[in-house]
Amino acid sequence: MFKTLKKGDIMVFPHGLLHFQVNACGVPAVAFASFSSASPNLQITDFALFANDLPSSLVATTTFLDVATVRMLKDVLGGTG
């Protein structure tokens, strides 16, 4: 899932959910982060990034991989998009 936030919007990420932010507008932005636990859970990044339905172009932008490589990894790990 991806969402575009507007000024004043707040987003809460559930415990253990891999997440990332991209400043798509190119203007200065501010983010505040806090954690609900001193010992966060383990997240296997390979599956979180490539076994999902996020658009391949978005994953490519955040991982600095080209779209063809992202699609290949999605095919191997069961992702779509």
From TrEMBL:
The keyword Manganese applies. Keywords: Apoplast, Manganese, Metal-binding, Secreted. GO terms for cellular component: apoplast. Residues 3-70 form the Cupin type-1 domain. Mn(2+) binds at residue 19. The keyword Metal-binding applies. It comes from the Eukaryota. Its main location: secreted. GO terms for molecular function: manganese ion binding. It is found in: Secreted, Extracellular space, Apoplast. Belongs to the germin family. This is Germin-like protein.
